[in-house]
Design a protein that fits this description.
Layout (H helix, E strand, L loop, with lengths): L6 E3 L2 E3 L2 E3 L9 H9 L3 E5 L22 H27 L4 E7 L5 H11 L6 E5 L6 H7 L3 E6 L2 H10 L11 E4 L6 E3 L13 H14 L7 E4 L20 E5 L13 H7 L7 E4 L7 E5 L2 H11 L1 E3 L10 E5 L4 E5 L1 H12 L4 E4 L4 E5 L1 H12 L32 H11 L15 H4 L11 H9 L3
Parallel strand pairs: 3-11, 4-5, 5-6, 6-7, 7-8, 8-10, 10-11
Antiparallel strand pairs: 1-2, 9-13, 12-13, 14-18, 15-16, 17-18
Helix pairs in contact: 1-2, 2-3, 5-6
Length: about 475
């Protein structure tokens, strides 16, 4: 393998190895600080990061507000306090080496307020900000205001073109790099467009080459592209190094840092990673964001899949084939089903799925009374963690709603990600991972349950493996 050459990232020459940010306490100050101390770029998540009391004890995020708007403000306060705490921890652990970045999801609630609140109180601790999950036009202006570099996350050259022409060309000096995140292989939320087939992955090389060609049109020849998603052994990307068509390239690792001693995830989660088989991570569209996401196939996702399978269309009046009367709700209000669907409905009810729940798409999904009650409770307890949520119908607009019915086919993403981060339950919670996570089980380096330190992992990656 060709030798990895240092790159200028956020004002300093560092290894072209970047820790990918993973939200809700999964990439924290300890892991990112250790990655920076090893000579790379550590990235902690600014998405509802953990905060601590005066004795260093974790502060659980509990909400007392009676309204969504009040709980939303509590969430913002938690997020800012947690982001500052993680920035300080990362800075202290890094020993002045490497670089420290913060990762923000643009579609999280109050992204601008939270990022500005963290950067205002963490001046000198953070060197760059990565941002994806949406079209973060304003991230360049915010980064420039605080004299740090920005790293938009895109999944196509077309997306970067829109961002550049609309906003980024005004702040070109602070563009530290462009993260190309493979929409088929990366973990967490993915940037698949409506024109791309989730079942037909494309080779990243021509897509990244197209991105570089576009960047050259605007004189961005020396701005690094950061390849994210599907990176395991750098030796498998040897043809990307010193390649004039690709230009300066760095590699981002999101999944491999999960299995390190500094990683804050539970031992149960780490052990589960060592047992994954190819295909255990798959793309799904259950997220309340509306984006596709990649997560581990487990009972949590299986229940969501089965819930959506127990779904039929209804009409409010007899029309076409919808001729069969079906009573729903406490007062038995009638809706109309097709003859075939009423057979399905009666079958599900006989199996114990006695609670039909309306969706925004004029369909009914059938659930047990217990699950239906939990779904409603989670929707009511919404604290507005997203800019717009399909599950609860929250929106951060003035009305506080998307204007659509809450969608029982989704879930409270804040609740499940907080639970898996802090409780160690990996079966009944959402577990994000990249599609190469199965390689933990086949990579001989992890034999017999070996869990490296971050320093050992970075040193290993430099060998190409």
């Amino acid at each position: 393998m060709k030798a990895l050459k240092p790159l200028l990232i956020s004002g300093r020459e560092v290894l072209p190895l970047i820790e990918g940010g993973k939200g809700i306490s999964v990439s924290n100050g300890e892991s990112s600080g250790a990655w920076a101390a090893a000579g790379g770029v550590g990235t902690f998540s600014g998405v509802n990061a953990d905060s601590y009391d005066a004795n260093g004890n974790f502060i659980p995020q509990t909400y007392k507000g009676k309204t969504r708007r009040e709980r939303h403000e509590e969430l913002i306060a938690y997020a800012i306090k947690g982001g500052i705490a993680q920035a300080q921890k990362a800075y202290d652990i890094s020993n002045g080496l490497g670089r420290i970045h913060i990762n923000i999801l643009w579609e999280m609630a109050a992204a601008e307020r939270i990022l500005q609140g963290i950067l205002e109180s963490a001046k000198g601790l953070i060197n760059g900000v990565t941002c994806g999950a949406g079209m973060p036009y304003k991230i360049a202006e915010i980064a420039a205001h605080y004299n740090i570099h920005y790293y938009p996350i895109v999944s196509s050259a077309r997306a970067f073109r829109v961002l550049w022409l609309r906003a980024y060309h005004k702040f070109r000096g602070w563009l530290g790099g462009v993260v190309y995140e493979d929409p088929w292989l990366a973990g967490g939320h993915n940037g698949l467009s409506n024109s791309e087939d989730p079942k037909n992955p494309e080779d990243p090389y021509p897509r990244v080459a197209a991105l570089r060609a576009m960047m050259r049109e605007w004189g961005l020849d020396d701005v690094p592209i950061i390849m994210a998603g599907g990176v395991w052994w750098v030796s498998e990307w040897d043809h990307w190094l010193d390649n004039p068509e690709i230009g300066p390239i760095a590699f981002q690792f999101g999944t491999r840092p999960l299995l390190t001693q500094e990683s804050p995830i539970s031992n149960a989660w780490k052990k589960r990673l060592l047992t994954l088989q190819e295909g255990d991570v798959y793309l799904n569209k259950f997220s309340p964001t509306g984006f596709y996401s990649s997560a581990v196939r487990n009972p949590f996702l299986q229940e969501l899949h089965e819930r959506s399978e127990r779904q039929i269309a209804y009409a409010l009046e007899p029309v076409g084939e919808h001729t069969e009367t079906f009573q729903i709700g406490a007062v038995g209000k009638p809706v109309y089903l097709t003859p075939g669907d009423i057979v399905h409905a009666k079958g599900w009810i006989a199996e114990g799925f006695t609670r039909p729940m309306r969706t925004p798409d004029s369909t009914l999904v059938f659930e047990t009374p217990e699950h239906a009650q939990q779904i409603l409770a989670d929707q009511i307890a919404c604290m507005g963690c997203l800019s717009a949520c399909q599950f609860s119908n929250w929106s951060q607009n003035e009305a506080g709603t998307t204007g659509r019915k809450p969608d029982p086919r989704s879930f409270c993403i804040q609740k499940t990600l907080q639970n898996i981060s802090h409780d160690g339950d990996v079966e009944s919670q959402l577990m994000f991972a990249g599609h190469n996570a199965y390689r933990f089980a086949s990579d001989p380096w992890y034999a017999n349950g070996f869990v490296p330190t971050v320093k050992q992992l970075v040193e290993r990656i430099q060998t190409g493996f």
